[in-house]
Amino acid sequence: MGLYKKYSFFVNILLAYLLVIFVTLKLSLIWIIALITLLFVGISILFYHYNEQKHYYKDIIDNSLNIVLVSDMSRIVSANKTFFKYFKGYRNIEEFSQKHHCICDFFVEEEGYISQINDGLSWIKYLLKNKVVYHKAKVKINENVYYFSISASVLDEKNNLYGVILSDITEQEHYKKELESLAINDALTNIGNRRFFHQKFDEQIVLTQRYNHPFSLVIFDIDFFKKVNDNYGHDMGDKVLVEYTKYISSILRDTDIFCRIGGEEFIVILPNTTKDKAYLLAQKLRESVENYKEILPITMSFGVAGYEKGDDDTSIYKRVDVALYKAKETGRNKVVLG
Length: 338
Fold this sequence. Notes:
alpha+beta, Alpha-Beta Plaits, five-stranded antiparallel sheet, elongated, transmembrane helix, Rev_trsase/Diguanyl_cyclase, Nucleotide_cyclase
């Protein structure tokens, strides 16, 4: 039908032209019928090839590894077979549309990924407006999480039809997150490493200087840890580190930033915490560790310092480090305020 509309003007002109020729040349009725028959045979062949071409392109789209769908902004109009490899509970778009109008119903709202609404625009309009930017979608389907690169294009602006392509990048995203985790997490204890500490430490100083919110540092290490390794072996020493890291993590707040910055040395960034409150927390940690006695009984020494006006990363870190040194030099298993 679309092809007929496209070529109807051409066909009508051709028929009128033939009619003029017939009248001018005074062709017989048989010749007229023969020529008209040839004309419609040609048109039929054209339609045949057109339909063959349509099936050819449909096969290509259906066999694509990408999800390809057509949307009118409010609902999915059509989708290729790959769509149903992910949305396995639906046999066709009609079934899908009874429960969901949009694939965006499955988007996970997370920084770095496309949402249903972005900068006040619906997701398709946002994609169309920002074509030069690489966009990703995090999609949760039946408890399974997938990651896709996503793009949109205009198919028929008059009828409000838009094409959307989603390419599965789940494996790449998992690999990327694994690399990111290795870069900032301590391999043994799975808390932040030294690099992560310095990154968050710098961020916290900027926030404190900008908004005048207090924050404090608590630094601590295991007393006589070398004896643990010498007497019980490094494997036992690692078990002690892992066990007590988990235990201390269970006491800290979700907002506290806990990092391992050396062999048996740890540090905690305490946002929105004065040094007096940090001191009380350090005492609680010290007593809890001493009473825990899992794997091997150990004690810890603590240094505490709070941010003071004019501090930079060097000055506050030096104060907390000196406080830890004093705790160790004056008997260990104690907290010193810097």
